[in-house]
DNA sequence: ACTGCCGGGAA
DNA sequence: TTCCCGGCAGT
């Protein structure tokens, strides 16, 4: 028996076993999604967008100055929007209702001068970013859902037999994301919880292994027929702001997040990195890029496409990346006995498996 | 270059 | 099941 610490990891698909489909939905497609919208002092901003499915419980807990409300409810997939009463911006049909009609939320108006909303929003952002479909799946699995048991051990790392075996279950390619991408429209799994962006990021890579050497990060402007590449976020934002958005410094605060939707993060090998803009700064400010432009600064009709990784997604990638087991300090049979005494190795070492004699 | 070992395949 | 090995990642 192999040790319990075995991490089956090197499968390129092991990173995201839970989410197997990638619905070919555009940014504006909202069926089956649940937009968590909340109002801030600056306006409304979609802080999270998770795929909803029947049975998915979403828990809110907001702490205000005077009162405290917490709501939990089953979110049907027909898009109930829960939002606190913000400014009546009717930019989106999802902002019509101020309080969900299906969640018993105590009505509470935002008290003036309330500053905890930033914290709340930060918490929502964090929770939405760190929410794995596994962590938020209902404790009682949906009986109507197909028994997709492909999600165990995504983050827990407690699976004794590595991750999952591709071969289990004949003809059931559930955990295979590339196949699932082709069959995206056929059977969306109930565990759908990650943004499709993330899945694209995770699976678009031809080489899923980490090749961090000599790879630099740059940012490409996504404005139509621009394609400018800069090495810094700040420079890119400034480029977008000044060149495309035609804005000066007085709008920087408003459009601070808007530029994020018009550039994408690209990586390129160092030797391929051509002469870029002289504006070289290090990436110090983590930016969160959402899948829709901020409603506070509507720009209708302008095409935007985002294929970038937010910080949380990067974190999630890192967490769920198929990482190998940490090489132990102990010498193994190979090193102890040497190649010439291979017959003295343990069988695992002989078979190039994890050593059973010298555990870490 | 060497080592550990995952994943896969042959016998 | 046993055995072997390609190939990757880390040292
Ligand atoms: Zn050994």
Automatic annotation (TrEMBL):
Record's subcellular location: Nucleus
Cellular component, GO annotation: nucleus
Chief place of localization: nucleus
Residue ranges of domain C2H2-type in the record: 219-244
Keyword vocabulary terms for this entry: DNA-binding, Metal-binding, Nucleus, Transcription, Transcription regulation, Zinc, Zinc-finger
A GO molecular function held by the record: zinc ion binding
InterPro entries attached to this UniProt entry: CR1/CR2-DNA-binding_regulator, Znf_C2H2_type
PROSITE patterns in UniProt: PROKAR_LIPOPROTEIN, ZINC_FINGER_C2H2_1, ZINC_FINGER_C2H2_2
Domain of life: Eukaryota
Residue ranges of the region described as Disordered: 1-32, 161-185
Any one GO biological process: regulation of transcription by RNA polymerase II
Name of protein: C2H2-type domain-containing protein
Species in which this protein is naturally found: Perca flavescens (American yellow perch)
Phylogenetic placement of the source organism: Eukaryota, Metazoa, Chordata, Craniata, Vertebrata
């Amino acid at each position: 028996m192999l040790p319990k610490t075995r991490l089956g990891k090197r499968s390129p698909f092991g990173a995201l076993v839970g989410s197997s489909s990638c619905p070919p939905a555009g940014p504006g497609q909202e069926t089956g999604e649940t937009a968590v919208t909340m109002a801030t002092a600056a306006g409304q901003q979609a802080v999270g967008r998770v795929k909803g499915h029947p049975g998915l419980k979403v828990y809110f807990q907001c702490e205000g100055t005077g009162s405290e409300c917490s709501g939990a409810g089953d979110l049907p997939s027909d898009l109930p929007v829960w939002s606190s009463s913000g400014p009546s911006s009717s930019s989106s049909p999802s902002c019509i209702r101020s309080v969900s009609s299906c969640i018993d939320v105590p009505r509470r108006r935002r008290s003036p001068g309330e500053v905890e909303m930033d914290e709340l929003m930060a918490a929502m952002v964090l929770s939405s970013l760190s929410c794995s479909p596994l962590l938020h799946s209902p404790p009682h699995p949906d009986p109507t859902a197909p028994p997709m048991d492909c999600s165990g051990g995504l983050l827990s790392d407690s699976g004794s037999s590595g991750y999952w075996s591709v071969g289990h279950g004949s003809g059931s390619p559930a955990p295979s994301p590339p196949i699932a991408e082709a069959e995206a429209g056929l059977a969306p799994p109930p565990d759908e919880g990650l943004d499709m962006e993330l899945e694209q990021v995770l699976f678009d890579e031809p080489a899923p292994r980490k090749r961090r050497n000599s790879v630099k990060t740059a940012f490409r402007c996504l404005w139509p027929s621009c394609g400018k590449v800069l090495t810094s976020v700040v420079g890119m934002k400034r480029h977008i702001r000044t060149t495309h958005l035609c804005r000066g410094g007085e709008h920087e605060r408003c459009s601070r997040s808007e530029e994020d939707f018009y550039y994408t993060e690209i990586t390129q090998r160092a030797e391929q990195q051509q002469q870029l803009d002289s504006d070289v700064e290090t990436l110090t400010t983590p930016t969160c890029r959402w899948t829709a432009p901020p409603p506070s600064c509507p720009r209708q009709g302008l095409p935007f496409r985002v294929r970038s990784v937010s910080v949380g997604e990067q974190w999630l990638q890192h967490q769920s990346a198929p990482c190998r087991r940490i090489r132990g300090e102990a010498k193994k049979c190979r090193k102890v006995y040497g190649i010439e005494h291979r017959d003295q190795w343990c069988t695992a070492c002989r078979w190039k498996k994890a050593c059973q004699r010298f555990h870490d």
